Amino acid sequence: xxxAERTRQYIVEKTAPIFNTKGYAGTSLTDMTEATGLTKGSIxxxxxxxxxxxxxxxxxxxxxxxAIIQQEMEKEKTMxxxxxVYANVYENFMKLPFPKGGCPLLNTATEADDTHPQLRxxxxxxxxxxxxxxxxxxxxxxxxxxxxxxxxxxxxxLTMIATIEGAIMLVQATGKLNYRKxxxxxxxxxxxxx
Length: 194
Prior knowledge:
Blueprint: H1 3-26, H2 29-36, H3 40-46, H4 50-73, H5 79-91, H6 104-115, H7 117-143, H8 153-174, H9 177-192
Helix pairs in contact: 1-2, 1-4, 1-6, 4-5, 4-7, 5-7, 5-9, 6-7, 7-8, 8-9
C-alpha cells in the first residue's frame, strides 16, 4: 500500500463511525478533522469532497458487517444454519465488532433516500446483493434437500431483510431492546419453517 492509500484508508477508518452515527448531513468537516487529526487540506488532498469520504465510509462499514456474517457462516455446515446466522448476528450485534452506530444499511437508507442519490444507490446495491445471497442459500438448501424452496424466493428473502432491518429501526426508535429479540424470533421461525 502506498502512503496515499494508507492515508485514505486511515481517513475512512476514522470517519466511518461518525458517518454511521451522525449521518452524511450531520457529519461536518470539523468532525472529520478532529477524528483524523488531519487538516482540511489533508483530507481533501486525498478525497475530492465530503461525498467521496461518505461513500468510502459506507463501503467500509458495510464490509465490516459482511465480514462478521461471513465469519459466523463459516462455522455452519448446513444452509439452514447459515440462514440462522443472520438472526443470531443481529440479535447479538452488541457483542460483535459491528460498526459504531449499528447497521449501516438502515442508518444510511433512512437519510439518503431523499438527500443523497449516490449513497441511496450504494444501499440499494447492498440490499440487492443481500437478497441475491439469501436466494442462493435457499436454492442450495433446496438442492441439498435440507428444506423446500419457497414459492417465491425473492419475496421470502426481501421479507427476511425487511424484518431484520425493521427490528433495528424499532429498537432505535423506542430504545426497547426486547423488541429486537421478539422480531428476530420471527426471523428464526421463517427459517425453521422452511
